[in-house]
Amino acid sequence: MLRKTTAALTLMVGLCGAARTHDSLVSLESAAMVAPEVDGVVERDAAWERASLIQDFVVLGAGRPAEAQTCVRVGHDAQALYVGFTCSLPPGQQPQATPRPRDGEVYRDESVEVFLAPDPQRPEKYFHFIVNAAGSMQDEIGRDAAWDAEWHAKTARIEGGWEAE
Hints:
Helices cover 0% and strands 39% of the residues. The chain is mostly beta strands. Strands 4-2-1-10-11-12 form a 6-stranded mixed sheet, with no helix packed on it.
């Protein structure tokens, strides 16, 4: 089962794609936190305890709880915004992802996506970040895939799924 979770952040978070929350948009204020160690391990890093939390996803179009749940944590410090994902998988399944070059077709794999739209008056000007379970990264501004941001992402396999930050 290939699952993709998409989080749209304007410091409002909406989730769409294969799974989303009960409401189309979830208003969320990013929590102030100490910077986590960006190593792909979310659950065991105490820095994430202060982050805002999004969970209880449902299958898009079906309205029933997603079989494999994702937990999203959002926080910030004076230098950066941090997003941590814990992606559960059905028992016995491993994440399906291929190592890809920067800006390769990362979205084809088990992946998480973040959309940042800082100006609600110009929603077409958004920043899009994707990381797959293999740790490959893709980014774009609007639909301009040539744009490369300075950002870091790491992933880790955990019992029952994988994590990304």
